[in-house]
Amino acid sequence: MAEYKASGATVPADSPCVAATRAYAEQIRNKPSPLNAVAMLAFIDEAILTNMSQADPVCLASAEAFFASWAVGATEETANEAASVAFLDAVAANPDFNPGSPCGQAAEAYIAAAGAKKRG
Q1: Of 26, 36, 78, 98, which is most buried by a Cβ count within 10 Å?
Q2: Beta carbons within 10 angstroms of residue 76's beta carbon
Q3: Taking the CA atoms of the chain, what radius of gyration do you get in angstroms?
Q4: 55: closest CA among 109, 27, 110, 94?
């Protein structure tokens, strides 16, 4: 992820990478929590719809925090907390962040699913 961020690489919405990510997400045995799955799929769907071609610094910061925490053995809940803090810090550091972006849509889907879970 750090190499991708540093390279400024772009990924077309119809790339094999996107297709593989979606297929992987649907087939993995140890699926992420429903909240993380909702956010991940919302991000992928919006990235495809908008033909996103550059990494979003807010989502990259959040993803890096999640995986850094997960890599040292944190639970998914703890990794989500690290990602949430990084997300908020990155939004504050990027005043041009667009809440309608794929990253913003993923956050909105996560929050909506979390709210539904609390009510349900």
Answers
A1: 36
A2: 14
A3: 14
A4: 94
